[in-house]
């Protein structure tokens, strides 16, 4: 029988008043876990025009991403973006954290910084699940311009 070692007590974390997601979705509620096995990183020092694809291009071959969100520049940080990245497991999160600490996490030619996100997320190994869609078809139908217009209209 596996023996569970409890994590040290943590302060209760509330959702920020700046949060724009659904605070009632169980996936968005802060979880009480220590830094390990936290799978959630807070990424800062991103260029102001950083996109999702910029981040994905910079973390290729790290591992599967469960969720992410890019925060646009604001009054407090008008020249930079920030992002939350959630992996399915803690090892890839720790790997990216170490890459960032070594100054090698480069997004749009700028070294990004990373730290454990204060709103932790437990491991949730994908076990064959995927949220990736692979869409194939003729180029005149399946291309970025047409698909982006479709998603914008449909969702």
UniProtKB/TrEMBL annotation:
GO molecular function, a single term: nucleic acid binding
Designated name of the protein: Uu.00g067800.m01.CDS01
Highest classification ranks of the organism: Eukaryota, Fungi, Dikarya, Ascomycota, Pezizomycotina
């Amino acid at each position: 029988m596996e023996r569970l070692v409890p994590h040290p007590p943590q302060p209760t974390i509330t959702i920020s008043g700046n949060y724009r997601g659904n605070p009632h979705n169980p996936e968005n509620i802060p979880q009480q876990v220590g830094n390990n096995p936290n799978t959630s990183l807070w990424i800062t020092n991103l260029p102001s025009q950083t996109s999702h694809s910029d981040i994905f291009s910079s973390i290729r071959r790290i591992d599967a991403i469960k969720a992410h969100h890019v925060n646009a520049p604001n009054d407090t940080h008008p020249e930079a973006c920030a992002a939350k990245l959630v992996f399915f497991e803690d090892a890839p999160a720790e790997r990216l954290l170490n890459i960032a600490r070594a100054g090698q996490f480069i997004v749009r030619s700028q070294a990004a910084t990373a730290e454990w996100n204060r709103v932790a997320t437990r491991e949730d190994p994908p076990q064959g699940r995927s949220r990736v869609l692979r869409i194939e078809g003729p180029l005149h139908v399946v291309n970025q311009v047409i698909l982006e217009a479709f998603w914008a209209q449909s969702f």
